[in-house]
Amino acid sequence: MEIYIACYSPQMIILGGGVMKQTQLFAQVRQKTLEYLNGYLVSPELADIDGYIVEASCKGDQGVLGLRRARSSGTHGLARTIRIDGAAAGVPNRRTFSPAIIR
Predict the structure, then answer these.
(1) The whole model's pTM is what?
(2) C-beta separation of 30 from 53 below 8 A
(3) What is the DSSP string of the chain?
């Protein structure tokens, strides 16, 4: 996740998928993200880590919905949606870490 933050500077990170339905993981993900960044990046978003790394509220369809919105608004080059899931990576069972990062 730190690589995505460093490379893309997203305004928010939305995590979803089967594993992330265990809401207790969010505290650990946030803590480890700050630990791995080790103060290298400083931004208002990272200062509010609870509002920066959030739970998906679109029932797992956040990537598709973000892409549809970007396409309908004509901002193809400005809005980026990156989705990683088990099927795309060739991992069976789709029970993998599935972030959707929208910049």
Answers:
(1) 0.57
(2) yes
(3) -HHHHHHH--SEEEEESSGGGSTTHHHHHHHHHHHHHTTSS--HHHHTHHHHEEE--STT-HHHHHHHHHHHHT-TTT--EEE--TTTTT-GGG-S-EEEEE-
